[in-house]
Amino acid sequence: MKLSVFAPLAVMIAIGVGLGVGLTNDPRALPSALVDKPLPDFDLPPVRAEERGFSHEDVKGEVALINVFASWCISCRIEHPTLMRLADEKRVPLYGVDWRDKREDGAAWLAAFGDPFKLVGEDQNSKLAIELGVTGAPETYVIDHTGRIRYKQIGPITEDVWREVIEPLILSLEQEAAS
After folding, report:
1. Tell me, what DSSP letter sits at residue 2?
2. pLDDT tens sequence across 23-78
3. pTM
4. What one-character-per-residue DSSP string does 78-113 give?
5. What architecture does CATH give domain 27-178?
6. How far apart are CA 100 and CA 122, in angstroms?
7. Long-range CB pairs of 164-168, under 8 A, 24+ apart, other chains included
């Protein structure tokens, strides 16, 4: 019997195994090549002219969140109440990156919905977004005290995401920084 008779069967088995392994992965989890890498150097201009912008130097020495948002982003409105609560509680420093937005639109959005951010930078041309590997807004990055990206949240930070994923990570990173 020729081996070529079994070739289609072998191919089908290989495809089945590949699909079977793929089905065990979480379809919402997109790996980030930057996790455990240093935050890229950047210096963004301010969204509001009377304030200063935001740079990588601003997060050094602290565990912080960097949130990528935009005035045109519907999902950003979903997560905004959670961000406002975190800012009110002063739980973790929160920095904003207004992505692919006109400066006046980002400023108007923050004026209308509230500004939870310590500092906000404008990334109209996506320079930082490209370096971070942003795929859409909102995205949030957890930065450790050494300036390394430790987690990337794709999509809104809901109360469940905060409680089950991000808050435990922040507590762990704060303990790591204290030791």
Report:
1. -
2. 555 444 545 566 889 999 999 999 998 999 999 999 999 999 999 999 999 999 99
3. 0.82
4. HHHHHHHHHHHHT-S-EEEEEES--HHHHHHHHHHH
5. 3-Layer(aba) Sandwich (3.40)
6. 8
7. 166/65, 166/140, 166/142, 167/91
